[in-house]
């Protein structure tokens, strides 16, 4: 069932991806979860808490989200390897850290789309006047 990047997808795979989303993105997410599972318990708990927050406010596009989670895993794996304490990674305010982290992944965020929609609506009704 696996196809190489140069092989065309079967009709079944095309249909399945229409229903479930790209299979490669799902594979990347499973790999991310496996990486997180290997972290020490306290780091794993911190990543899972950040992941929960990022799922609500992060990119809606699965490819962008997969890249974001890969980077999160990279950050915490490196922190473990360097012996960097969690508080040095996230700082005193974990929400501020998460928001700063999210700013690196603006594509596909629902909040960005809604802000643009609101600004556009107000600009239309006011003719762009202040």
List the helices and strands and how they pair.
Blueprint lengths: L10 H10 L2 H15 L3 H17 L4 H21 L3 H5 L3 H9 L7 H17 L4
Protein name: DUF1048 domain-containing protein
Organism: Streptosporangium vulgare
InterPro entries: UCP029876 (IPR008316)
Cα distance spanning the termini: 57 Å
CATH level-3 fold name: c-terminal domain of poly(a) binding protein
Number of domains: 1
Largest sheet: none
Structural class: mainly alpha
Number of helices: 7
The quaternary structure here is: single chain
Pfam families: DUF1048 (PF06304)
Organism: Streptosporangium vulgare
InterPro entries: UCP029876
Protein name: DUF1048 domain-containing protein
Question: What would the keywords be for this entry?
Answer:
130 residues, mainly alpha, c-terminal domain of poly(a) binding protein
Structural description of this entry:
The protein is mainly α and 130 residues long. It has seven helices and no strands.
What's a concise summary of this model?
This protein is mainly α and 130 residues long. The chain has 7 helices and no strands.
């Amino acid at each position: 069932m696996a196809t190489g990047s140069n092989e065309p997808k079967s009709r079944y795979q095309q249909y399945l991806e229409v229903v479930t989303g790209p299979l490669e993105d799902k594979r990347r997410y499973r790999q991310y979860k496996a990486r997180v599972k290997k972290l020490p318990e306290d780091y794993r708990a911190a990543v899972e808490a950040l992941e929960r927050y990022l799922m609500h406010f992060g990119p809606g596009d699965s490819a962008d989200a997969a890249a974001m989670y890969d980077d999160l895993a990279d950050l915490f794996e490196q922190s473990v390897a360097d012996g960097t304490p969690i508080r040095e990674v996230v700082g005193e305010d974990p929400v501020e850290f998460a928001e700063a982290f999210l700013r690196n992944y603006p594509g596909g965020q629902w909040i960005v789309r809604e802000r643009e929609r609101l600004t556009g609506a107000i600009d239309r009704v006011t003719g762009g006047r202040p």
